[in-house]
């Protein structure tokens, strides 16, 4: 019996040794990350903590480290999951939302999808107002995720029938009718909880992932939350040494605002980048707009070429706003010169835009067909 006991002990010891060896030798990086992440509590715990991807081709071209934060790995597929979580958290903290309450937002894009995931995980009702110019596929997706969707005529921000103001009135009405559960208009453009999300999560993640060794950050802005929040954190933690640059598409006034020292001009034109560019300085951006070190204006021609380049060279299937950010990171790296580290945001993937970005007909309709280099034309697979 003693012999059998010794054999059992040896087997256990051998098994433990083998397990330790296997853990240390097989995927050590993955094991470290998995231990750090642990088990999260519901879907909202999985928002954030996305990897930084070194873009090898562009890094080699510029002599810099060009890094993209893989926000398409968030549960809802975009960077907007972060803002969605924080505007809901803010409403909870202020007592505006109680269990079973209603969240209302005006959005034509990824914020709605992020809110849909967060609201389902937290048990809130979600109401979305959006311009009726949006695709049926986007409306169907939001409804599939449990949202009540109201497509309304597309009118200017100043018009009281703009989808944002209709969303605000809806929230006020529900709040009066159902005070027991509450309702809130999350107001993503001017609710600074959006900015706070990036001060508390995105900025610290970038700083930690680079070991504090980065020289510049750049991204485009719609609501302004990402650019402002990350800029605020990085400026504070680096004592101002990290530079921050706005990436701006055609049709936005912010590039000219920064270059002119604060003069807004009338908005004109447009861009293929959905949800990016602005005609005003939002509340999320206004505290940090004067902290920016510069801006780069990125044409649609450069953006669409980068969509195809990232797919071909890096295996990254990115949406137009992400590709625009990558172009901006490349240009900022060229401004700074070799041996610098530049970080940008890979906001989302191309999955929701593939019927346009890789369509011969759509590219021609936007006069962008000739922007695709000959060796990348093989990716134009849709008629």
Report what the structure shows:
This protein is α/β, with parallel strands linked by helices. It has 2 domains: 52-77 and 192-379, Rossmann fold (3-Layer(aba) Sandwich), CATH 3.40.50; 80-185, 3-Layer(aba) Sandwich (Rossmann fold), CATH 3.40.50. The protein contains 15 helices and 10 strands. The chain has helices at residues 2-25, 28-37, 56-62, 80-93, 110-122, 136-144, 163-177, 193-209, 225-237, 254-259, 283-286, 300-314, 320-336, 354-357, 360-365, and strands at residues 52-54, 65-70, 102-106, 125-131, 148-152, 183-185, 216-220, 243-248, 294-297, 341-346. The strands form 2 sheets. A 6-stranded mixed sheet has the order 1-2-10-7-8-9. It has a 4-stranded parallel sheet with strand order 5-4-3-6, sandwiched between helices. Helix 4 (80-93) crosses helix 5, helix 8 (193-209) crosses helix 9 and helix 12 packs across helix 13. It is globular. It starts with a helix and ends in an 18-residue tail after the last helix. The mean pLDDT is 91.
């Amino acid at each position: 019996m003693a012999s059998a006991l010794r054999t059992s002990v040896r087997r256990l010891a051998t098994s433990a040794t083998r397990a330790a060896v296997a853990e240390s030798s097989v995927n050590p990086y993955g094991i470290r990350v998995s231990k750090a992440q642990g088990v999260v509590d519901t879907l909202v715990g999985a928002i954030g903590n996305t990897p930084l991807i070194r873009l090898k081709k562009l890094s080699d071209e510029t002599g810099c480290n060009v890094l993209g934060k893989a926000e398409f790995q968030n549960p809802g597929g975009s960077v907007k999951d972060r803002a969605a979580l924080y505007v809901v958290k803010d409403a909870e903290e202020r007592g505006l939302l109680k269990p079973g309450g209603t969240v209302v937002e005006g959005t034509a894009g990824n914020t709605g999808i992020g809110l849909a995931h967060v609201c389902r995980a937290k048990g809130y009702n979600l109401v979305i107002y959006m311009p009726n110019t949006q695709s049926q596929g986007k409306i169907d997706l939001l409804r599939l995720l449990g949202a009540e969707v109201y497509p309304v005529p597309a009118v200017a921000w100043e018009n009281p029938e703009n989808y944002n103001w209709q969303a605000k009135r809806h929230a006020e009405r529900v709040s009066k009718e159902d005070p027991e559960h509450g309702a809130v208009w999350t107001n993503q453009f001017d609710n600074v909880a959006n900015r706070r999300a990036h001060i508390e999560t995105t900025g610290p993640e970038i700083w930690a992932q680079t070991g504090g060794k980065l020289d510049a950050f750049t991204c485009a802005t719609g609501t302004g939350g990402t650019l402002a929040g990350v800029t605020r954190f990085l400026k504070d933690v680096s004592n101002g040494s990290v530079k921050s640059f706005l990436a701006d598409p055609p049709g936005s006034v912010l590039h000219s605002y920064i270059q002119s020292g604060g003069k807004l001009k009338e908005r004109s034109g447009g861009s293929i980048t959905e949800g990016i560019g602005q005609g005003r300085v939002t509340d999320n951006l206004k505290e940090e707009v004067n902290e920016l070190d510069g801006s780069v204006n990125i044409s649609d021609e450069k953006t669409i070429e980068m969509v195809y380049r990232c797919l071909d060279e890096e295996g990254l299937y990115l949406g137009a706003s992400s590709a625009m950010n990558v172009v901006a990171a490349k240009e900022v790296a060229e401004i700074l010169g070799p041996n610098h580290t530049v970080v940008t945001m890979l906001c989302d993937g191309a999955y929701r835009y593939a019927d346009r970005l890789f369509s011969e007909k759509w590219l021609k309709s936007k006069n962008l067909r000739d922007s695709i280099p000959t060796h990348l034309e093989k990716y134009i697979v849709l008629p």
